[in-house]
């Protein structure tokens, strides 16, 4: 019988348990997938702690890659033996085997292995919608990417650089600064020693950046607004430091008719056509070598509590995978 990580209450890493689960044959529109690797992401912590509530009991995890074991009677574009990957839900990727809707699965190109796929799907598709849909980055744009040495950060910095942008990244130490520099950042700011908004103004000759991609939240929100040029856009897509407190929208006007959006991958990939298009862009940019996927941490799935602790302590760089 396969195993999976389950939670019966919200809380710290200790609420996750390794349990036997039953996996049925796939429904007519489903496929059953045996995971070879599972991705770890900060949103998993939000689910575990209840910041993003889930009906309980529940599984965890939003991305994985593996091999199709069986398909339902109505599935025509997948076959047993196909290598596939997915991201964005429903939760339950922290498992050895699961069934899920076939229209959420993307076939992997030969050049991309399952471990790389599991490490890049959520972070890569996030980077894809941020850079190519939410605010379409063009050559010559100046962009600010927070947590530049993190999973999304390393992918987004490389991708933005490949698009011809001037990439400014924030980090918390020298080692992460070196990593960000090696992955596309033209300018790296250690926010523990510098006022990043003031430094951004210096780098851009006082103008500010066209867009800020902010997955940190509370700690960076005010400075992100101060880093934008007139009519610039703040894309707030995460809460690693906690949720942004309420504020008066008039502030956006006072700081230069700014735009603010709080997007999610779920909405940008709700339609199969959109998921496929973003996936194709991601596979192309990775396959071309313009974006390299850095799997810097690997844990057994059964040891996921330690992985969560290390992620919350900001010990991770790049991507992390869990091995079932």
Automatic annotation (TrEMBL):
One of its GO terms (cellular component) is cytosol. Keywords: NADP, Oxidoreductase. It comes from the Bacteria. Its EC number is 1.6.5.5. CDD domains: QOR2. The keyword NADP applies. One of its GO terms (molecular function) is quinone reductase (NADPH) activity. The keyword Glycoprotein does not apply. Pfam families: ADH_N, ADH_zinc_N. Residues 11-322 form the Enoyl reductase (ER) domain. Coiled coil: none annotated. InterPro entries: ADH-like_C, ADH-like_N, ER, GroES-like_sf, NAD(P)-bd_dom_sf, QOR-like, Quin_OxRdtase/zeta-crystal_CS. This is Quinone oxidoreductase, NADPH-dependent.
């Amino acid at each position: 019988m396969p195993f999976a990580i389950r939670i019966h209450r919200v809380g710290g890493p200790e609420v996750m348990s390794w349990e036997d689960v039953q996996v049925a044959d796939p429904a007519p529109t489903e496929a059953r997938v045996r995971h070879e690797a599972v991705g770890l992401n900060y949103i998993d912590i939000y689910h575990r702690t209840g910041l993003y509530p889930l009906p309980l009991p529940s599984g965890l995890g939003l991305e994985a890659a593996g091999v199709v074991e069986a398909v339902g009677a109505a599935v025509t574009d997948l076959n047993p033996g196909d290598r596939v990957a997915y991201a964005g839900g429903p939760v339950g990727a922290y498992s050895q085997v699961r069934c899920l809707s076939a229209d959420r699965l993307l076939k992997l190109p030969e050049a991309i292995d399952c471990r790389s796929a599991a490490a890049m799907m959520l972070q890569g598709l996030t980077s894809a919608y941020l850079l190519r849909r939410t605010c379409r980055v063009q050559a010559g744009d100046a962009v600010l990417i927070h947590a530049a040495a993190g999973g999304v950060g390393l992918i987004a910095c490389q991708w933005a650089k490949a698009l011809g942008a001037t990439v400014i990244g924030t980090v918390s130490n020298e080692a992460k600064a070196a990593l960000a520099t090696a992955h596309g950042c033209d300018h790296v700011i250690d926010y523990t020693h510098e006022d990043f908004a003031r430094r951004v103004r210096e780098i851009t000759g006082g103008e500010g950046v066209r867009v800020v991609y902010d997955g940190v939240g509370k700690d960076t929100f005010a400075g992100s607004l101060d880093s934008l040029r007139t009519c610039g856009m703040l894309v707030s897509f995460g809460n690693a430091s906690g949720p942004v407190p309420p504020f008066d929208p008039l502030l956006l006007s006072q700081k230069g008719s700014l735009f603010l959006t709080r997007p999610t991958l779920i909405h940008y990939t709700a339609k199969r056509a959109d998921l496929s298009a973003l996936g194709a862009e991601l596979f192309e940019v990775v396959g071309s070598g313009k974006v390299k996927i850095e799997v810097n941490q690997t844990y057994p799935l059964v040891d996921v509590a330690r992985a969560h602790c290390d992620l919350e302590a900001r010990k991770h760089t790049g991507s992390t995978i869990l091995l079932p």
